[in-house]
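Subject: Re: docking follow-up (adenosine-5'-triphosphate)

Dear J.,

Thanks for your patience while I sorted out the input files. As discussed at Tuesday's group meeting, I've set up the holo structure prediction with adenosine-5'-triphosphate included as the bound ligand rather than trying to dock it afterwards. The sequence and the ligand SMILES I used are pasted below, so you can double-check that they match what you have on your end before we go further.
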Amino acid sequence: MGWKNLFTQEIAIDLGTANTLIIYNDKVVVDEPSIVAQDRATSKVIAIGRQAQKMHGKTHENIKTIRPLKDGVIADFYAAEHMIRGFIKMIYSGSRVFTPALRMVICIPSGITEVEKRAVKDSAEHAGAKEVYLIHEPMAAAIGIGIDVEEPMGNMIIDIGGGTSEIAVIALGGIVCDKSIRVAGDEFTNDIEEYMRRQHNILIGERTAEKIKIEVGAALDQLDNPPEDYAVRGRDLMTGVPKEIMVTYSEIAHALDKSIAKIEEAILTALEMTPPELSADIYKTGIYLAGGGSMLRGLDKRISQKTKLPVHIADDPLRAVARGTGIALKNIDKFKFLIRD
Ligand SMILES: Nc1ncnc2c1ncn2[C@@H]1O[C@H](COP(=O)(O)OP(=O)(O)OP(=O)(O)O)[C@@H](O)[C@H]1O
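The structure tokens for the complex came back this morning:
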């Protein structure tokens, strides 16, 4: 290990609305939900990540759980800073006497404003970063998928995360056109909560709704490999008593239909904005999907039916952006599209 490595360490952060991943020495060393538990009276952060998630929806009046990011951007600066600091500490887990200077690459949604960008940089700097580079999420996803982003070839990437769906056409190391909408996995979860309340008179929490989405969520009401019906437990709105009901994937497909239609609409808009030479490339290569939301059953097929284009889901879609951010970290000098200031 050289002196440079001893005093400066490089990490890549996929700071997401739902999950935060940190890559250090080419490995994912942190993969935790982006959530913080705070003492209401003292504002002290008492838990972060998985530990805080266990408390989510089950807290008493002295504790609150916060998701510091909303729609892909920092909504609570104090909580975000503590969360980043805590996750960075997990890398060293007490094995170091001093904290090294940190060089970080962090990904950001492509539709982010200057103020929102500043908030990410400031949080990282307060958490110990000396040098911060930002990369747009679809670019990171493309790199993580294994696409040569610097080639004179158009590729369409759709990153469906927790807070945002980012649709981008990438060529020659840049984003040629993009469309970012604040409809993604979290909105699907809300739709399910709302549907269960309206349709079945049952009140469920966010964690249960997310579980339903993962176990029986679907984008189409007819699937080739349908999941089994799922038992949902919650509170009966009429009687106030806990109850259990069975839900089918077709019902969930119905509940998610409107949100998925919004994503489809955004994809069509992005395709319309694409310059013709790049359209020709995309016709050949198809569309690449990444992000946890892309794991919804049948979503690739539904997008393919709508666009008449082949759709490919990234390997390990939840980690594609982090992988790409990690590769960007190793190419800081080469990748001109990283944002420095
Ligand atoms: N098997 C699955 N089926 C459907 N959705 C899933 C599945 N697994 C995870 N998700 C959803 O994926 C979303 C998280 O994805 P991801 O980690 O890519 O987002 P993020 O990077 O945190 O968010 P953003 O990019 O918007 O900031 C959550 O809404 C989660 O519920």
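A couple of observations from a first look. The chain has three domains: 3-140+321-330, 152-183+259-314, 185-255. The mean pLDDT is 93.

Let me know if you'd like me to rerun anything.

Best regards,
T.
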